[in-house]
């Protein structure tokens, strides 16, 4: 069972790395964008770097093409993601082609939905939140507590 760990570099990737016990000892790879902590991670892990959309339609199309290529190269059974924009197209592609998708809403989102959360509540098999308050505005969410 291969696991994809998908997160934009920076804080989203930092949150995902807190869950190392979930994939430790299992075949896995990462999907992220080229920023400092992801580049450091690539020194010891298999990381695919995708174009960061940044709400730009052309960059989003490039990201989707790259994500499709990586998905069919790796064929993960499960995708675990903490968002954000770099990871979301990969999650959607994975769901369309039969992978299970676990999405964890960002720790910094307490009183409102993130854009990633708004999208992924429809594409995830398991949607987890780190704050009980989030249960008020995500009807599909399950409370998991903080990853930190």
Tell me what you see in this structure.
- With 148 residues, the chain is of the alpha/beta class.
- It has a single domain, classed as Rossmann fold (3-Layer(aba) Sandwich).
- The chain is built from five helices and seven strands.
- The chain has a seven-stranded parallel sheet with strand order 3-2-1-4-5-6-7.
- Helix 3 packs across helix 4.
Structure summarized in a few sentences:
This protein has a single domain (3-143), classed as 3-Layer(aba) Sandwich (Rossmann fold), CATH 3.40.50.2000. It has five helices and seven strands, in the order βαβαβαβαβαββ.
Question: Which descriptors would you attach to this protein?
Answer:
148 residues, alpha/beta, Rossmann fold, seven-stranded parallel β-sheet, 5 helices, 7 strands
* Outline: globular
Largest pleated sheet: 7 strands, parallel
The CATH C-level name is Alpha Beta
Helical segment count? 5
Number of domains: 1
The ordered string of helix (H) and strand (E) elements is: EHEHEHEHEHEE
Write the layout of secondary structure elements.
Elements: E1 3-7, H1 11-17, E2 28-32, H2 36-41, E3 47-49, H3 57-74, E4 78-83, H4 88-96, E5 100-104, H5 115-120, E6 126-129, E7 141-143
Parallel strand pairs: 1-2, 1-4, 2-3, 4-5, 5-6, 6-7
């Amino acid at each position: 069972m291969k696991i994809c760990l998908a997160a934009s570099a920076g804080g989203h990737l930092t949150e995902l790395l807190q869950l190392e016990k979930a994939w430790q000892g299992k075949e896995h790879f990462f999907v992220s964008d080229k920023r400092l902590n992801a580049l450091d991670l690539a020194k010891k892990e298999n990381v695919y770097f995708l174009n960061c959309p940044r709400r730009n339609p052309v960059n989003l199309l490039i990201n989707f093409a790259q994500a499709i290529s990586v998905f069919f190269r790796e064929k993960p059974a499960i995708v675990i993601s903490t968002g954000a924009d770099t990871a979301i197209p990969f999650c959607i592609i994975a769901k369309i082609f039969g992978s299970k998708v676990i999405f964890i809403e960002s720790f910094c989102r307490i009183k409102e939905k993130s854009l990633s959360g708004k999208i992924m509540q429809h594409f995830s098999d398991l949607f987890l939140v780190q704050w009980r308050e989030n249960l008020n505005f995500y009807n599909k969410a399950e409370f998991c507590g903080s990853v930190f």
